């Protein structure tokens, strides 16, 4: 049998600012032979997420930092190439942390077998039914408990999570305003996804946009960005407003501490709640979300889109699309 070669991106230095290809090394190594109880996975689609930046920060973030010299980590969809594991057969599609590499030898822990659903592309498990869908579902519904007639503002609204949050908000009867970085993205979330209004923060001052689209104030804010946008939202909160803090992508590449929001004091006067969360907190309740997301999708009430970049070798360069705003939906690498 011809020896398989595994191509990998290994982390070689910690970034000061943007995470770039200079922080990685492209390597190749033979794929080891399987032992009893092991399974060989070939990566098909690799998920790129803003959290990848936090994972390489010295001192880590919500998890330990990825060690220098290690394969860069990342969630992926793969296929079983060989198996000496009783629970997996050749040809099974699975989801797990394969990382930035072509192959992974696994003992099966943390590997989830994906159901076969005719007509559903595998990328849906990254763009809708995986961690992205769970983040949108629980981050909005569990933390913010939206009510009909309330005003919901979503930052990074054309992104993978934000686009789902806005649609779920509409399903719950909210007036939904999305903030995005281009006219095309604003048009998409309004015309295709059903948002009530959109703000292009690159062409309109965010304070003016919020006055225009949220004349009655803001009841719920789904936070993906931080910085100036968060500060402007804090200035327009209604009584008992809720803020779900999913991310602050504007700060991930900062090389020095950034100032906090000036209007944070409004949380006191408005008796508002601001709560952070991690999607891993909700994994025991995943099936609850999957049932609703699946039903809404089947009914045509929930849409998603993916931005697929071809080739594992393009992974470091593609990651920058998340931070310059050029991605169009869930960013995915097609590995093989």
Notes on the protein architecture:
This protein is an alpha/beta fold. It has two domains: 5-127 and 305-334, Alpha-Beta Complex (Quinone Oxidoreductase, Chain A, domain 1); 131-281, Rossmann fold (3-Layer(aba) Sandwich), CATH 3.40.50. The protein is 26% helix and 25% strand. The protein contains ten helices and 15 strands. The chain has helices at 51-55, 124-127, 131-144, 160-171, 183-191, 206-213, 227-234, 266-269, 286-298, 315-324; strands at 5-11, 24-30, 39-47, 76-83, 93-96, 103-106, 112-113, 151-154, 175-180, 197-200, 218-223, 237-245, 273-276, 306-310, 330-334. The strands form three sheets. Strands 3, 4, 5, 6, 7, 14 and 15 form a seven-stranded mixed β-sheet that branches.
List the SSEs and their pairings.
Elements lengths: L4 E7 L12 E7 L8 E9 L3 H5 L20 E8 L9 E4 L6 E4 L5 E2 L10 H4 L3 H14 L6 E4 L5 H12 L3 E6 L2 H9 L5 E4 L5 H8 L4 E6 L3 H8 L2 E9 L20 H4 L3 E4 L9 H13 L7 E5 L4 H10 L5 E5 L2
Parallel strand pairs: 8-9, 8-11, 9-10, 11-12, 12-13, 14-15
Antiparallel strand pairs: 1-2, 3-4, 3-6, 3-15, 4-5, 5-7
Keywords:
336 residues; alpha/beta; Quinone Oxidoreductase, Chain A, domain 1; Rossmann fold; 2 domains; six-stranded parallel sheet; 10 helices; globular
Helix content: 25-40%
Number of helical regions: 10
SSE run: EEEHEEEEHHEHEHEHEHEHEHEHE
Shape: globular
What is the β-strand count?
Answer: 15
How does the helix and strand content classify structurally? alpha/beta
User: Could you give a short account of the major beta sheet?
Assistant: 7 strands, mixed
CATH H-tier superfamily of the largest domain: Medium-chain alcohol dehydrogenases, catalytic domain
The CATH first-level class of the largest domain comes to Alpha Beta
| Low-confidence runs of at least 5 consecutive residues | none
Radius of gyration: 21 Å
How many domains, in number, for the residues? 2
What percent strand? Answer: 25-35%
The name CATH uses for the topology of the largest domain is Quinone Oxidoreductase, Chain A, domain 1
Shape-level CATH architecture of the largest domain: Alpha-Beta Complex
Mean pLDDT reading: 94
Distance between the termini: 20 Å
């Amino acid at each position: 049998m011809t020896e398989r070669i595994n191509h990998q991106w290994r982390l070689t230095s910690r970034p000061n600012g943007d995470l770039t290809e200079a922080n990685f090394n492209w390597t190749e190594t033979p794929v080891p032979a399987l032992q009893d109880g092991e399974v060989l996975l070939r990566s098909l689609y690799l998920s790129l997420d803003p959290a990848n930046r936090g994972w390489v920060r010295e001192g880590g973030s919500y998890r330990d930092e990825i060690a220098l010299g290690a394969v860069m980590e990342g969630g992926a969809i793969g296929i079983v190439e060989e198996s000496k594991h009783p629970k997996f057969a050749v040809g099974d599609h699975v989801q797990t942390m394969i990382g930035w590499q072509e192959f992974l030898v696994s003992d099966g822990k943390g590997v989830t077998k994906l159901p076969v659903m005719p007509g559903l592309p595998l990328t849906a498990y990254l763009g809708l039914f995986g961690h992205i869908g769970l983040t949108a579902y629980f981050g909005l519904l569990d933390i913010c408990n939206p009510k009909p007639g309330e005003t919901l503002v979503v930052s990074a609204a054309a992104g993978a999570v934000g686009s789902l949050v806005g649609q779920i908000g509409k399903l719950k009867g909210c007036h939904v305003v999305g903030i995005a970085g281009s006219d095309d993205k604003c048009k998409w979330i309004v015309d295709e996804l059903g948002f009530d209004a959109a703000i292009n923060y690159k062409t309109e001052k965010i304070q003016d946009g919020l006055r225009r689209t949220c004349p009655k104030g803001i009841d719920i804010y789904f936070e993906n960005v931080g910085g100036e946008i968060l500060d402007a939202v804090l200035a327009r909160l209604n009584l008992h407003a809720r803020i779900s803090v999913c991310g602050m992508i504007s700060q991930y590449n900062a090389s020095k501490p950034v100032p906090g929001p000036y209007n944070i004091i409004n949380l006191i006067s408005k008796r508002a709640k601001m709560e952070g969360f991690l999607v891993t907190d909700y994994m025991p309740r995943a099936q609850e979300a999957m049932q609703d997301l699946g039903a809404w999708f089947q009914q045509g009430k929930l849409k998603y889109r993916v931005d697929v970049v071809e080739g594992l070798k393009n992974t470091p360069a593609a990651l920058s699309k998340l931070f310059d705003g050029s991605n169009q939906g869930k960013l995915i690498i097609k590995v093989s």
